[in-house]
Amino acid sequence: MTEEIIMKIAEPQDADSLRELINETIDTCYSHVYPQEAIDYFKDYHNRLNIVKDILEGYCLILTSGEEFIGTGTLLGSNARRVFVKPKYQKMGLGKRIMYRLEEKAVEKGVRIMDLDASLVAYPFYRILGYEIQTEEVTPVKNGQNLRYYKMVKKLGDK
Ligand SMILES: CC(C)(COP(=O)(O)OP(=O)(O)OC[C@H]1O[C@@H](n2cnc3c(N)ncnc32)[C@H](O)[C@@H]1OP(=O)(O)O)[C@@H](O)C(=O)NCCC(=O)NCCS
Question: 72-105, pLDDT tens digit by residue?
Fold first, then answer.
């Protein structure tokens, strides 16, 4: 039987399951694009404390299939962050579903321009959703390696 996919608001006790989902997605999706030092930086950035903080201060969504956490995304002010869909469930429209809900919530809160940091992996996805590159950023990580990403924005209401 195929489980129904449910979207709900995350609670602090969901942080560990969210972290597992995020780490698995980073390990699978980033290894062909980023050096290990950048992967370690991403994983540390999405630590338990930061996840709980954003659950409490922002609007954090989770997608579940039965007991399994399969996707997430958070809105904090005008910033969409921590958008991840578990590899097995990618390219099924779930990322879009998460982003559209975050954009709807942002509009409800009066946000006009949504912003986000896009990994090199996620950048094509955000382009399809109408986000435009504002700047390319380079963050130095360990062993002289760099982490490249894009700052992107979208004017809400312009679908
Ligand atoms: C980026 C991500 C959230 C997209 O989620 P998803 O559920 O696979 O996306 P969807 O199925 O909703 O895709 C929406 C559209 O984007 C396209 N798309 C998604 N990922 C893509 C990619 N990596 N390259 C090119 N196109 C992509 C889809 O084909 C689809 O196009 P369509 O509307 O023309 O059919 C997901 O792949 C992911 O978690 N990636 C790794 C983690 C990551 O980088 N997260 C963002 C943190 S900055």
Answer: 999 999 999 999 999 999 999 999 999 999 999 9
Choosing from 19, 91, 92 the residue with most ligand 1 atoms within 8 A of its CB, the one to mutate for a pocket test is 91
Q: What residue segments make up the domains of the chain, in order of their start?
A: 5-155
Which ligand 1 atom is at minimum distance from the Cα of 89? Answer: 7
The dihedral over CA atoms of 33, 101, 111, 47, expressed in degrees to the nearest 10, equals -50
Residues 6+ apart with CB under 8 A from 44: none
Q: Top-level CATH class of 5-155?
A: alpha beta
Q: Whose CA is nearest to atom 27 of ligand 1?
A: 125
